[in-house]
Design brief:
By secondary structure, the chain is an alpha+beta fold. About 40% of the residues lie in helices and about 15% in strands. The structure holds inosine-5'-diphosphate and magnesium ion. Inosine-5'-diphosphate binds near residues 91 and 109. Inosine-5'-diphosphate (IDP) binds near residues 57, 61 and 115.
């Protein structure tokens, strides 16, 4: 099982798209194990996006991410990191395929609705930035045995 950090960015919250985006992850069979509405501080945005420092869009990105509340989520499943990235679609809304979150809900290249960790290392780091100890819950989901084939003892 993998857990990934998903952020519904300020445009998703302001546009009232949280429920529809969360539903896509729930419909897919992924499990939400952490969620909170928060206002990202400039310091946290800078740490989270440290790899992008110095790029032309960096200041705008930090300004955007701190401009209004976001919904951060910890989402779990087998291969959750790759599955969530493919559900999100390409970075730019103008280029993202139809059927993806960015492809279906936006046209902007900077206001692109959602962040998702891009590797296991990034997921571990980012979950640690946005969730305090005890805020990600290891809860038993009663539908688990119908979401995954558990006959071999492990989720398949
Ligand atoms: P990702 O979110 O798909 O992983 P990254 O390349 O890691 O994309 O970029 C992080 C975020 O920075 C993007 O989601 C987007 O909000 C913003 N961004 C990236 N490239 C550009 C750009 O060329 N113009 C404006 N914003 C950009
Ligand atoms: Mg990225």
């Amino acid at each position: 099982m993998e857990t990934t950090l998903i952020i519904l960015k300020p445009d998703a919250v302001q546009r009232g798209l949280m429920g529809r985006i969360i539903s896509r992850f729930e419909d897919k069979g992924l499990q939400i194990v952490g969620a909170k509405l928060m206002q990202i501080s400039p310091e946290l945005a800078a740490t989270h996006y440290a790899d992008h420092k110095g790029k032309p869009f960096y200041d705008g990105l930090v300004g955007f991410m701190t401009s209004s509340p976001v919904l951060v989520m910890a989402i779990r499943g087998v291969g959750a990191i790759t599955i969530c990235r493919s559900m999100m679609g390409a970075t730019f809304g103008s280029k993202a395929d139809a059927g993806t979150i960015r492809g279906d809900f936006g046209v902007s290249n900077s206001f692109n609705l959602i962040h998702g960790s891009d590797s296991p290392e990034a997921a571990e780091r980012e979950l640690g930035l946005f969730f305090n100890a005890g805020e990600v819950l290891n809860w038993d989901r009663m539908i688990q045995g119908w979401v995954y084939d558990m006959s071999g003892g492990a989720p398949e």
